[in-house]
Structures are given as C-alpha cells and as structure tokens.
C-alpha cells in the first residue's frame, strides 16, 4: 500500500511538473505579448495624436515632412513587426483589419495634405479627414486594448493554474516529508528495539554481538565471559503460562542488571540466555560476583511462593578473544546445566 502511494505521489509530481513547465512557458510568452501589446497601444496613440498635430501644422502653413515620415514608419512597423521602434505585429485579425483600413486612409490623408500644400482650397476636407482618421485610430487602439484584455485574462487563468499546481506540489512534498519522518522514526524505533531488549530493560542481542566482536583492550584486561541460562523455564510456561516465564526472565535480568557498571556489561543474548562481559577483575572477584548473583537468587526464591529462579552458569577467564571465550563459557554453562539436572533427578 505504501509503495503504491509513493508511486502515485511520484506520478502526480511528474505530471504536475510537466504541466507547470508548460504553464510557465506560456506565461512567459503571454507576458512578452502583453508587453508588446502595451507598446503597440502606446505607439498607436502616438499616431492618433501625431496626425492631429501634423494637420494643425500643415493647415497653418508649416509643412512637416519629417513628422509625416515618422508616422509613416510607425504605421508600417505596426503592420510588419519590423523596424526601429521594437513594435510587434499583433496576432489578432480584427486589429490587423482595422490597422489596414487606417493605413489606407493614411495614404489618402497624405494625398490631401500634398494637394493642400499647392492649393489651400481643400482645408476643410483635410481637417475633416483628420477627424475621421482620429476616430479610426481610436478604433484600432480599442481593438488592441480588447486583445490585451483577453491575453491578460488568459494570463490570470494560467497564474491560477500555476498556483494550484504549486500548492499541490507543496501538499505532496509535505505529505512525503511527513511520511519520511514517520519512516525515520519507525526505523529508529526498530533499530532501538534491535539494540535494546524492552521486556528486560537490558541490551539486546545485537548489542551483545557488538560487544563480543569489539577487540579486547589489553590495558583493560583480563577479560571474563560469563554465560547464564534459566533452567526449567518450559515447565514453568506449561504449568503457569508464558506470562509467568516472562516474569522470571525479567526478575533474573533485574538481578544481573544491578551488577552492571563501566567494567561489567550484561545483556540478553537469547530467549532465556544472558551474557556478562567483565574486565579489570581478578578471578577471585569474578567468583565473588557470581556468588552475589547466587545469593540474590536465593533471596528472591525465599520471597516467592511459586516461581523459583533456577539457572546454570559457566565462565571463561583470561582468553585471547571474546568470541572464543563465549564458546567455552557456553560449553561450561551446559555442563553446569547437566549437573544441576542430575542433582535434581537424584533428589
């Protein structure tokens, strides 16, 4: 289920990223178009006002060929998209049609201006045509503004889509982060469980194995490996239930745990097996340590009416390596277990 969810997240993320890339590409294009359209509207307004100024000057006997050429160049660039003013040719049919009509009328207006220069008798016609041209330019500006409005709406929609996609990606990323945090926490718990035996509170099997395989430091020697194994645990489980056996394991672990210090390591090696690694102790001190465990067990058994702790132990002192010492201590422990069973049978 988790793997399917992760795969779904990856697919959704990939789709969102692809769509987001397409949206961003279109947004950049639209921004460029909108900026270009703004320049087109601005220069169309220049044509509108410039033509009025041209006619006013011409009808007052001031010819302005340079202004006429300037306006002519802007009109040409608006239609072709090529020229010195960095103007775009808008991809809008209604605008282009009105612009073509404006250009044709501009040619007619220029003809009338040239006629006026040689024969001022057509002044009223020039003025009237300039008014008509002004209104036509207004229509071109209005069409360009409508085109700009439509593109702006599309841009707004794309920005909304972008926000939604980014929000979705953020939600998925947060969900993945939460999942990863839970996974890390779970792995940490599992790792802790592997190193720590929760029922007894002692280091677990992995901790024991790590301690066993750590090279011995001769400065901290001699070392001693002790192996413990509870006896008759199966009988107790069969007679009183596994919970009773768990109690005995926990109580024996407590007895051992009271002896731990910087030179004494105690861990649960297996179901009912425990190890003790001791350093900086003489063999007489080891014997005293084992005697303390025996006495603590006797005190426990005197207080308990039914559950009694019985165990076997074996130790190896002053060996060359802890793994070898463990094997020898284990063998001695089983000899002790056999001897204890034989004594019990004799009784």
UniProtKB/TrEMBL annotation:
PROSITE patterns: GGDEF. It comes from Acetobacterium wieringae. InterPro entries: Diguanylate_Cyclase, GGDEF_dom, Nucleotide_cyclase, Rev_trsase/Diguanyl_cyclase. This is GGDEF domain-containing protein. CDD domains: GGDEF (cd01949). NCBIfam families: GGDEF (TIGR00254). Residues 221-347 form the GGDEF domain. It comes from the Bacteria.
């Amino acid at each position: 289920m988790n793997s399917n969810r992760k795969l779904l997240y990856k697919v959704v993320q990939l789709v969102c990223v692809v769509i987001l890339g397409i949206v961003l590409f279109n947004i950049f294009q639209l921004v460029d178009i909108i900026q270009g359209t703004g320049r087109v509207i601005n220069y169309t307004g220049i044509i509108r006002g410039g033509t009025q100024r041209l006619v006013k000057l011409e009808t007052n006997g001031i010819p302005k060929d340079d202004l006429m050429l300037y306006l002519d160049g802007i009109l040409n660039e608006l239609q072709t998209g090529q020229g010195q003013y960095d103007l775009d040719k808008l991809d809008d049919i209604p605008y282009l049609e009105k612009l073509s009509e404006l250009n044709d009328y501009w040619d007619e207006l220029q003809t009338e201006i040239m006629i006026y220069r040689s024969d001022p008798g057509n002044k009223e016609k020039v003025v009237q045509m300039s008014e008509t041209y002004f209104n036509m330019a207004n229509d071109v500006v209005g069409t360009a503004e409508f085109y700009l409005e439509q593109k702006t709406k599309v841009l707004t929609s794309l920005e909304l889509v972008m926000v939604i996609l980014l929000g979705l990606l953020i939600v998925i990323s947060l969900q993945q982060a939460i999942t990863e945090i839970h996974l890390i926490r779970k792995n940490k718990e599992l790792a802790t469980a592997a190193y720590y035996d929760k029922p007894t509170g002692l280091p677990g099997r992995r901790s024991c194995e790590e301690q066993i395989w750590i090279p011995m430091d001769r400065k901290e020697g001699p070392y001693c490996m002790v192996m413990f194994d509870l006896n008759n645990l199966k009988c107790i489980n069969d007679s009183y239930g596994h919970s009773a056996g768990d109690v005995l394991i926990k109580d024996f672990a407590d007895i051992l745990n009271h002896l731990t210090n910087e030179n004494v390591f105690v861990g649960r090696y297996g179901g009912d097996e425990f190890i003790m690694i001791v350093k900086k102790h003489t063999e007489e001190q080891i014997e005293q340590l084992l005697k303390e465990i025996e006495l603590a067990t006797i005190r426990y058994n005197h207080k308990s009416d039914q559950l009694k702790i019985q165990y076997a132990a074996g130790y190896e002192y002053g060996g060359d390596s802890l793994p070898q010492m463990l094997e020898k201590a284990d063998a001695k422990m089983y000899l002790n277990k056999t001897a204890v069973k034989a004594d019990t049978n004799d009784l």
